[in-house]
Amino acid sequence: MTARILAIDTTSEHGSLALAEDGVVVEEMQLHSPDGFGHVLFPELDTLLKRHAWRLADVQCFAAAAGPGSFTGIRVGLAAIKGLAQAMGRPAAAVSNLQALACYGSASMRAVVIDARRGEIYGAVYSQSLERVSPEVVMPPAVWLERLPECSLEFVSADFTCLEAAIASSRFSRSPRTIAPPALAGAVGRIANARLASGAVEQPAGVEANYVRRSDAEIFWKDR
Q: What is the three-state SS of 143-156?
């Protein structure tokens, strides 16, 4: 049976949608919406489905980038796939943005990075098989680099600006770097396809966000 995946990434202002079939990306559509995706997501999704003559009923799994990223953006994407999956009676998959970035590396060990702002980065290390080797964390880049394992690493990011100063003065100054595309929906779709094949997808209600950092509201409420 053909496995069709619909994947969404709304975790930053540079979002994307993708359709994947048997692990191959049929199309990845980039979206740019600085004021959020709530008002553009479903019209664009409808356009993409119609372009390839797909119906929602043809989709075997709905997937979304689950963060880290914009708290509001994460919620928009997850709510969309949970609602669609529930309506269609299909499973869902929430994929870490860091794991999705690791898809674009080529080395056996990949250190993936996202700018977390406030002088911090989101980072983790993934293997060639996309298994997490070190935990996903948020911390200052220099501290993260010091804690990385003593092995050969390829660094993967859509934007290395947040890491430039710290990595230049670290033991990884000569390590290879790969610039990933800003659109992650295609990678999310490929990961979701592998999960579907192995039975590692979830019921829609079980899909959760991968914030890594607590929201300001949660920090204020819990730490006051």
A: HHHHHCCCCCCEEE
Contacts of 208 (CB under 8 A, 6+ apart): 66, 78, 94
pTM for the model stands at 0.94
- Per-residue model confidence (pLDDT) at position 219: 44
The whole-angstrom distance between residue 34's C-alpha and the CA centroid of its chain comes to 18
Which amino acid, one-letter code, is at 152? S
DSSP letters for 142-198: HHHHHHS-SS--EEEES--TTTHHHHHTSTTTTS-EEEPPS--HHHHHHHHHHHHHH
DSSP state at residue 138: E
CA 90 to chain centre: 21
Between CA 141 and CA 165 the distance in angstroms is 9
E-strand spans in the chain? 4-9, 14-21, 24-32, 61-65, 92-95, 109-117, 120-127, 132-139, 154-157, 177-179
In tens, the pLDDT along 54-104 reads 999 999 999 999 999 999 999 999 999 999 999 999 999 999 999 999 999
Q: Which two tokens stand for residue 220?
A: 């204020």
Residue 215 has a pLDDT of 56
Interior angle at CA 29, CA 177 and CA 126, nearest 5: 35
How does pLDDT run across 160-206, given as a tens digit for each residue?
999 999 999 999 999 999 999 999 999 999 999 999 999 999 999 99
